[in-house]
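We emphasize that the prediction below concerns an isolated chain of 436 residues; any contacts that depend on oligomerization or on bound cofactors are therefore not represented. The input was used exactly as deposited, without trimming of termini.
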Amino acid sequence: MILPIVLAACAIGSVSAQCGTLAVPENRALPGGPQVTLGIAVVPATDRSTRRADPVFWIAGGPGGSALEDLKWLVPSFPDVLRHRDLVFVDQRGVGRSSPLSCQIATSSADPAELVRACLGVVGADVTHYRTVDAMDDLDAVRQGLGYDKIDVFGGSYGATAAQVYMRRHAETVRAVVLDGATLLDVPVLERWSSSGQRALDLLHRRCHADRACAKAFPRWYERFPALLAKLRRAPVRVGGATFDAAEVAEGVHELTATMQGAAAVPFLLARAEAGTYAPLARALALVPTTPGRVMPLAIMCTEPWAIQRPAAVRADARGTYLSYVDPLTADGMARACGAWPAVDTTAEDWSRVRSDVPTLVLVGGSDPKDPPRNVAGVTQAMPNAAVVTVPGGAHGVSFVGCLPRVLDDFLEAGTGRGLDTSCVSLTPYPAFRLR
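Result of the prediction step, given as a token string:
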């Protein structure tokens, strides 16, 4: 039995909310064993007279993102949704305000397996129960504790993966789903990382070539990028006390192309670097967020089939792409780290493509370097009530771009994608290319 959750006024950033906690078993097979305390925030609908019974539960990306941190930007981004619906944020177990698992150990070892073994000795938790299935059962416990019947589930990136798991495990509680930057559960998204990233860079090249100012300012940035990476592999450069090699630059470019604003700066940054001026690129890469010491993501990356990274498959996908400098190395490191991770029996779990009649809005960035359109191919066959909206030139996560917040609200209000007016999406503006 889930006890009612007691909420109290709080502020997260500049947003006023109602906050609370819920204790759930770390291992649901041992209800009397160790507990996980979930951090929860609810932002009530602003128009109480038109408040709908179904709230929107946001699931953060990552894995390892904090939903409560996302609240700071997500609430201002969706005023129409908030007008009629409560927005609910729950930090996933092992992250943020939900019994976080972190590992800050002093060691000279660079071996991923040794680092994992050292971390497992200090986190003080059964890490085999910090997976997506556990987190989605937590989400349903929060639903019950807050007294909601049906809910709308909204997930971005990994959050869209988790939302599909919730759809499967708690279908009877779901009224509607929004998947932003999604990949279907039976698609090995990380084994396609390199070719997806190269595709996004190719599309960026075409768009720069078609833009008179960009093409004039940076006529050869794309053609010269492979030579720049080869040079950095031979001789990394130091800028402001930091060293940049080919792998770091390739990974940084991949992250930059994951936002429309970041992508618009790539031709300028690479052209300057190719000319020997690395400072602008170094500053841009320094802004790419990093979260060292997190343990929870490995609980998912090492045990869930969708996240598999077989080194041979990654190497084959990376061949001929700019990410060949980094992704095979990452896969090799993950293989070593996961070799030291406790084994989990997943034979009773269903990781096939979710088949559901729940109304689902699938939002896709046409130039997404991580979860491109091909990763949701066939979704309407598996989910006949799904509506797919592709934003031309959109990057990784498009729900907050242009008119999409209004489209999302229209979808939730109607409770169906049929007849949804998405004509405004084709008018979504590109950020201007950075020229200096």
